[in-house]
Write a structure and sequence with these properties.
The protein is mainly alpha-helical and 198 residues long. It has two domains: 46 residues, Arc Repressor Mutant, subunit A, CATH 1.10.10; 139 residues, Tetracycline Repressor, domain 2, CATH 1.10.357.10. It is 73% helix and 0% strand.
Length: 198
């Protein structure tokens, strides 16, 4: 096994393990073994496991940001279709993992929000960024009169993120993507469909 000394590689290895096992169940030793690095190398890069946790959140957000950017900027799709597609891509990934792992932001929100204020704040920041990107598209759709003018787009964006996370949690418990499919159907085929202003 090739020995890893690069900080970014350690973060990626740790991210994969934490998505599978959870943060508290992932010991530094497991990360060191998977990355094939000596213990001293880990602490050369991170002063604590909490700092490492913040780094994996940042990596996850950056990777998701790249994914969303390509979808949200796709002018071949209507605005609401872009939002729908962004959620469908996440659902496909979840299904591809046999309804395992889920979303790092949701997982750590449940596990760490009451244990680490620094992690909680970073998670809140990440979720706000996500909702903010959705809100921009929704506001554009509202200007195009695809969505009624009396709807609050910031509230809708926040609720989309919250509802998706709740549906993902139910899907993990059920070991079925059906709650996520219901989320897509209710929001994009029912709630936001046929609401165009005349």
């Amino acid at each position: 096994m090739k020995r890893i000394h690069n900080k970014e590689d350690i973060v990626q290895v740790g991210l994969d393990i934490v998505l599978s096992r959870g943060f508290n169940a992932t010991g530094v030793e497991a990360i060191l073994k998977q990355a094939n690095i000596p213990k001293g190398s880990f602490y050369n890069f991170f002063s604590s496991k909490e700092e490492f946790g913040l780094a994996i959140i940042d990596r996850y957000v950056a990777e998701r940001g790249k994914l969303f950017s390509s979808i949200f900027s796709d002018e071949s799709l209507p605005l609401l279709e872009r939002i729908k597609k962004s959620f469908e891509i996440l659902i496909e990934s979840f299904e591809g993992n046999d309804c395992f792992k889920g979303c790092l932001l949701g997982n750590l929100s449940l596990e760490m929000s009451d244990l680490s204020e620094n992690v909680r704040q970073r998670l809140e920041q990440a979720l706000q960024i996500w909702a903010g990107e959705l809100s921009k598209l929704l506001l554009q759709a509202q200007k195009e009169k695809t969505i009624p003018s009396d709807m609050n787009m910031e509230m809708l964006a926040e609720n989309l993120v919250s509802s998706f996370q709740g549906a993902l949690l139910r899907s993990k418990v059920k070991k079925s993507p059906q709650p996520l499919r219901d989320f897509i159907h209710l929001y994009f085929d029912v709630f936001l469909a046929r609401r165009e202003e005349k």
